[in-house]
Records
---
Amino acid sequence: MKYRILLFISLFFSLQIAFAQGGLLSEEDLEEEKVYTNLEKALKNPSEVFILDLSGQGLDKIPRDVGRFRKLQILKLTNNNFGELPREMTRLRNLQVLYLDSNNFNTINFDMSNPMYYGNLEKLYIGGNPLRIVPEELSQMQELVYISLSGNLSLDLNQAFIPLSAIPTLEAVDLSYLKLDTVPLEVGNVQDLKYLDLSGNPSCAWDTSFRYLAQMGSIESLILRDNKMRSLTEEVAGLKRITELDLSGNERLNINQVLRAIKPLQKIEVLRFSNCGLKELPSSIGNFPVLKELYISHNEIGSLPDEIQKLEEVEILDASFNDLMEVPSNISYMQSMEKLYLSHNPLEFLPSGISELSELEYVEIPKNSMDKTEKKNVKKYLPDAEIVFVEDDDN
């Protein structure tokens, strides 16, 4: 969580500077912009196109006309048959986010002959390609913060981190689904690496990997989804700077052991245990006093422990898609709660104490299991919150 906040702040200020210099929209403004998915329609008003998504359209070549979108900041070209970048791409001086994943790139030649080419690029997705090497030109991208190499099974990781370690701004790397047997030592050459995604590497030697990551001392967000994990080795306790840990999708996770293993990590602000086959949420969840976000959706949890009241800093609780029959009344102690997700549970009522959550602004609760009286009560308890009653078959 801390890493994401710092990353957002750094991106925010870089966007503001870039806006003053070159007319870039802020992240908030981009969210309001139309996403164009049809090239012909986009070409009718190229000066109004800031986001273009040509993903999954079966294209063999990147259209040269993309160079006409001089204000383009986000370009998604995922899941096509592209194998090379046209020269016209260098005209996209405002481009900040580029998706080239799931294509047919054997090599990617970024033209960096002019410092302004790709000069604003901050996020690059090149996973799911038959790449063997990472382009050396990446070392010249002075604004790149995030790169995804996910699923590039032919990649020479020894070579990959030579250009990556030369990027002064790089903070986040996705090494998911690479069939790793351990974390590459070269990862340590990225001087200020804060975010590391190691999802989908079930054969990884985690004791050695955790020990090495602890020595690096910079990792704040560690993503370990879909690794067939049942437990965490004791070496994880050495990751003292961790603020976010994602173990979602490890369907046979021993949650009691995991919470014991990470108890020393007292800076944790975000925990994700969705799709972990959990039958319960242990009382030891109360041992994380600075926790701000807790995700436990898509499990089989039947009740929340009384100790959840100790999580007074939690702002987001997602307990949707579980077997909750009731919500404990002491949820009223969670005074920082802003968003609460309880849909797809057999809940028949919410405790009146929920009215004491003065910061609560958004709630999702099941529609089918509550009668009209209880729905009225919820609205009475939370007059200022946005309440969404979700049908059981809604996703």
---
Amino acid sequence: MRSLFSLILWLFIGVCINLSYSQDTIDVYTFGDGYYNKGHAIDLSMDNGFIIGGSSFNVQNNSSDFYVIKLDSTLDKQWSYVYGSDHLDVLTDVKELPNQNILILGYTNTNLSSGYDITLLCLSASGHFLWQKVYSRPDWDFAYKIIELPNQEMVLIGETYSNTQGNSDAYLLYVNQNGDSLTSRLFGTQRFEMFSDATLLSDSSLVLCGASYLSDSISDIYLVCQTQSGTTLYEKTLSGSPFASAQGIDTDQNDHLYLSGTSNGHNQRMDKDIFTLKLSALADTIFDKVYAASYDTSLIENKDDFGHQIFVRSNQEVLNVGVTTTYGFGIDRIAFSLTDTMGQDLLAQSPDLDYSIQDIVEKDSILYMVGSTQLIGNGQDDVLLITIQNIQNTYELNTHVLADTAIVSDQLKPVKENTASIQLYPNPNHQGEFWIKGSKVPHKIKGYTLSGQCVDMRCTNNHCVLKDALPGVYIIECIYNGNERFAFTLLVD
């Protein structure tokens, strides 16, 4: 009898140990062709599959194309295409329409006289090109998200330099499902304003988040709420630290707002941290959580953490996904932060993966996250897809490296040559330091991230250094006398 009791006791202890160390599998998929490929957006399709959007970069001829992958419900590839020109075409969002056509949002510099223009492509359900709209304005314009409105119109959100209100203004462009421009709106002051994300409330009001920059080190969270009729309910800046910028926004069933982004509220520390901010529908603060993985006091090597996306799950967990530079030894690592809707911290196991997640959807309680990776895959950078169910469990990685040579679409655009024979070198590089090779010296040189944010850059004649450059792709614009402009991609690895 005693031995039977001991056996039962040991079986019970074993079950408890297994429960306490429960392990899930993260399925990790990469898509690439040996070059530089970035994942940026994902949408659920009506056939229970997925549409993934990104960009494919060729640093040799300084061009990039839209890269679109269609997967079925079991994550098997159905098709993949690239769309673009011999210039820079950068994808920022994908959206399936009720008729199963697919909208591709991005920006392009095929019109060199105006710099970057917002562009919208429409594809069939099988990936064939249907039409393209380019919304040309006098100066640079970027759009980052497509929001479908209840009246079947869509609003493209981003920023514009084609304005008279300041350096850049947050920008809304309303279009119909044929891509025809309906109206547009600007928001801003004499600072740099931009919208990065938006969400709809239950009354169809549109809440937009972003940043209002005074400089690279001084910024506030920027919030605007538009009613369904287009009336501005509020326009607010939220501060509390020298630097605060909102990158992602989501809402729960009670119309509470959740923001993810980056802030620096330290008196003697130079690094930036990830934040989760919960607000009421009228933008009153409910709670503010800061997640600090680094504690750098140096003025030279800042160890920054960045919040990219926030997602309110069907089980009411609030997942904040960002990146940390602290533990990556030169490579950014994906960082998970988890709370409930009351602000209680929950255990979140971050996967040992590089280096960014840009978009998230949920299907049948499983999360599907899209971003980019350098350490696994076929190329220098590959599109990354992660599937995971329980954020709080420990993980075993199950990696699927998929070589993908996408078909070049039958959609072509006119090619304009770089007659000035300008080059950046070395490209790629490791430190963010580069030279501009050409027959003449640029009058002005500007640097931008792929999301359109200005980067801190120091230039003397044809020599430039990106300050605190993180690994990734940057856009370098060279402006010559007579307003002649050329734009280039610079890869920092």
---
Amino acid sequence: MTQDQRGINRKLRVLEYAKNIGNVSKARRFYGLSVKAVSLAFLSFAP
């Protein structure tokens, strides 16, 4: 697995966790990410 694939998988895990618990802020804090990082992850996968 390459560095890029790890980064993509991490972003997907954060977004899936946020969807499951229904709270992006809690998911962000759980994974130790900033608001900007989560926003960029969301924009990466948005249609």
